[in-house]
Specification:
The chain is mostly helical. It has two domains: about 80 residues, Winged helix-like DNA-binding domain superfamily/Winged helix DNA-binding domain (Arc Repressor Mutant, subunit A); about 60 residues, no CATH class. It is built from seven helices and four strands; from the N terminus they run E-E-H-H-H-E-E-H-H-H-H. The longest helix is centred in the C-terminal third of the chain and has 19 residues. It starts with a strand and ends with a helix. This is Transcriptional regulator.
């Protein structure tokens, strides 16, 4: 079995590759069992434990808002963001407000909605996508917004406004 699009076989993955792979899964909201990690990479229990410990240490050193937690009942590890990020409900509300405002062209709205959904865990994404899909399908942009790039214009406006304030202070 290969990892990272055929570049590295799982059996030959070094510690850094294993840990990055673990972190990627944890960051996407997955819960991981040590035994599954051992089986996937053909490593012993102590090596798997060191991989999880390395991630825990890295997070505490550089991202103290995140913790690697162990669920003893389920026997798996997960990333706890201590309330950071968006909940499924918060994401849905933001998207509904954007849709209801009809303030963006559809070609600007769709990538923005996709970016918001990408902040959610894979399970939350599965839950929310059907709701959003129907809303986006029926979205009718205002005619005067067609072919406008409002996101860039709004960002530029705020940059100029901030620069003007800083200049006068």
């Amino acid at each position: 079995m290969t990892l990272l699009k055929g570049l590295i076989t799982i059996e030959k993955a070094n510690a850094a590759t294993r840990q990055l792979y673990l972190y990627r899964l944890l960051a996407s909201g997955e819960r991981l069992a040590k035994k599954d990690h051992q089986d996937k990479f053909k490593i012993d229990a102590r090596t798997a434990q060191r991989d999880f410990a390395s991630i825990r240490n890295f997070l505490s050193d550089y991202f103290n808002k995140y913790n690697l937690e162990y669920d003893a009942k389920e026997h798996n590890y997960y990333l706890n963001s201590n309330g950071l990020g968006l909940s499924k409900a918060q994401c849905l509300v933001l998207i509904k407000v954007l849709l209801a405002s009809r303030s963006l062209a559809k070609k600007e709205l769709e990538p923005l909605v996709a970016s918001l959904v990408a902040l959610l865990t894979p399970q939350d994404q599965k839950d929310i996508k059907p709701i959003i899909r129907s809303e986006l399908a029926s979205y009718v942009e205002q005619k005067h917004l067609k072919d406008k790039q409002l996101l860039a214009a709004i960002y530029t406006f705020f940059q100029v406004n901030l620069a003007k304030r800083n200049y006068h202070n």
